[in-house]
């Protein structure tokens, strides 16, 4: 209700008493959507008007002192500087008033919620807007703001609709009438109630009330009354600004920041826990190179075509079940396990690195939360939020990649998550020399092996990535899967084709068993 017509009507009357004959000495802005007007009164004291016209909060306040910053400060409406105030006018039944100067210029305060604006209208010249994006205000005329309404009991009884006679009541007053069962009264009783209400709006003290957990400035006793103020609109608007902008905004932003950090802390702890479990499982399992050694020591005992064999583990003095690829010789199976040992070392290093990085992030989040919990001012809070990258900008948001990532012998292998992600992976996240793989003639994930300058991708890496392509395809359960591969520069997408559908040239085919990941990064 702080922008209600009845509040502004009382404010403009008070400002008239304060500002008549004063001189505007400064008009500037040093915060986005905030205008400061400094007046030198006839008694040589200063009076400030601060117009806060932000999208989420619009208000007028009147600070006792205001120190202009030497930096990031811009003069606004310099045409008015050193001009004297001639009059102040409140527009009838409109949330607008103006300050008229002796040079013929008018400074219009149009207080229309998030469309509020301060407009300078020099005599005989085009309007100048403080908020330039509200282009419609360029065509505003002062005469259009006057809305005289004739009111009488006879007119009301003839057509009992308070919204026509009092269009300026606003949401809070309408809720007050609804709560008082206004519509159940007779027309005569309604008129009496309206007359009493208008008298209160014009004479009552101001109240700080709370409705739906949000503070309001009110001229009626509605909602949870937090404070009873004086009848002085300048004092009331200052107190409301302090309560809403400083206290309510502060607690709201502080709570949101802490909630966000609690979420980040919880996510970091969960990631560390899960990744540590992966690492423990990987390190506690029999090392692939040891399995290879056991196979090599028992080549004579392994028959071709076997998929599983139980052998003595001379590292632990216990028997162990070893999986074999029936299409490979025992010696080739051993070579595969030696190769996996190299991958295992890389995976262990990567998981360890990920845990250390996440632990560092966790400590940072906890320190940020502690700093915010100790913060007592909105300005300090916003500095922490800005420096901590918690302000909701792109840097603060988690990046959702369209692919899963794996490490194979030091090479990054990226696997698309779905048909739409396949397009994004292949068309936006690839380099022309990356190697592209896909299970032949069936739906499945696009797979990329990221190119490394000056290196040729080893056959063993291609085979492993092809295993991913087979695993993330409709041929997942087949014994052997044909997988095509080619550099990305030979992959094309035609306009109008289905998500994930591409056309490939100069491809090669490799037959591999379907093989899913041991660990996902």
Automatic annotation (TrEMBL):
Any one of the GO CC terms: RQC complex
Keyword ATP-binding appears in the UniProt entry: no
UniProt-listed GO biological process terms: rescue of stalled ribosome
Molecular function, one GO term: tRNA binding
Any matching Pfam family: NFACT-R_1
Keyword match Coiled coil: yes
Domain NFACT RNA-binding residue range list: 407-502
Entry keywords, A to Z: Coiled coil
Entry coiled-coil feature ranges: 341-375
InterPro entries: NFACT_RNA-bd, RQC_Subunit_NEMF
Record-linked PANTHER family: NUCLEAR EXPORT MEDIATOR FACTOR NEMF, RIBOSOME QUALITY CONTROL COMPLEX SUBUNIT NEMF
Name of the featured protein: NFACT RNA-binding domain-containing protein
Organism of provenance: Roseivirga ehrenbergii (strain DSM 102268 / JCM 13514 / KCTC 12282 / NCIMB 14502 / KMM 6017)
């Amino acid at each position: 209700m702080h922008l209600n017509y009845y509040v502004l009507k009382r404010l403009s009357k008070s400002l008239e008493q304060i500002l008549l004959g004063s001189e505007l000495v400064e008009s500037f802005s040093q915060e986005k959507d905030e205008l400061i007007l400094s007046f030198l009164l006839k008694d040589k004291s200063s009076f400030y008007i601060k117009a806060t016209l932000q999208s989420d909060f619009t208000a007028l306040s009147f600070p006792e002192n205001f120190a202009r910053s030497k930096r990031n400060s811009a003069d606004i409406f310099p045409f008015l500087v050193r001009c004297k105030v001639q009059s102040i006018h409140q527009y009838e039944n409109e949330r607008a008033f103006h300050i008229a100067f002796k040079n013929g210029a008018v400074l219009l305060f149009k207080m229309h919620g998030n469309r509020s604006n301060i407009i300078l209208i020099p005599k005989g010249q085009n309007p100048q807007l403080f908020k330039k994006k509200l282009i419609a205000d360029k065509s505003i005329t002062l005469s259009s703001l006057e809305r005289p309404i004739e009111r009488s009991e006879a007119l009301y009884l003839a057509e009992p609709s308070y919204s026509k006679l009092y269009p300026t009541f606003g949401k809070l007053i309408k809720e007050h009438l609804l709560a008082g069962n206004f519509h159940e009264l007779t027309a005569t009783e309604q008129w009496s109630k309206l007359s009493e209400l208008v008298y209160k709006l014009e004479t009552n003290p101001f109240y700080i009330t709370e409705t739906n957990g949000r503070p309001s400035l009110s001229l009626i006793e509605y909602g949870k009354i937090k404070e009873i103020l004086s009848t002085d609109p300048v004092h009331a608007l200052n107190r409301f600004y302090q309560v809403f902008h400083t206290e309510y905004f502060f607690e709201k932003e502080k709570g949101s920041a802490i909630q966000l950090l609690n979420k980040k802390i919880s996510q970091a702890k969960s990631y560390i826990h899960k990744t540590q479990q992966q690492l423990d499982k990987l390190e506690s399992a029999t090392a692939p190179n040891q399995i290879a050694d056991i196979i090599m020591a028992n080549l004579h005992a392994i028959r071709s075509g076997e998929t599983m064999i139980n052998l003595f583990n001379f590292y632990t003095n216990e028997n162990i079940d070893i999986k074999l690829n029936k299409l490979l010789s025992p010696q080739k199976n051993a070579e595969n396990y030696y190769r996996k040992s190299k991958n295992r070392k890389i995976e262990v290093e990567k998981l360890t690195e990920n845990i250390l990085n996440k632990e560092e992030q966790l400590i940072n989040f906890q320190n940020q939360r502690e700093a915010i919990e100790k913060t007592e001012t909105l300005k300090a809070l916003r500095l922490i939020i800005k420096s901590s990258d918690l302000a909701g900008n792109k840097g603060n948001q988690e990046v959702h990649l369209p692919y899963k990532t794996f490490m194979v012998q030091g090479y990054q292998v990226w696997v698309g998550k779905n048909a739409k992600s396949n397009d994004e992976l292949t068309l936006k996240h690839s380099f022309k020399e990356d190697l592209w793989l896909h299970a032949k003639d069936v739906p499945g994930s696009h797979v990329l092996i990221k190119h490394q300058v000056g290196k040729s991708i080893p056959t063993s890496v291609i085979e492993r990535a092809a295993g991913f392509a087979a695993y993330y395809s409709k041929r997942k359960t087949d014994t052997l899967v044909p997988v095509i591969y080619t550099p990305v520069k030979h992959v094309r997408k035609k306009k109008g084709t289905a998500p994930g559908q591409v056309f490939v040239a100069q491809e090669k085919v490799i037959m591999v068993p379907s093989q899913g990941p041991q660990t996902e990064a």
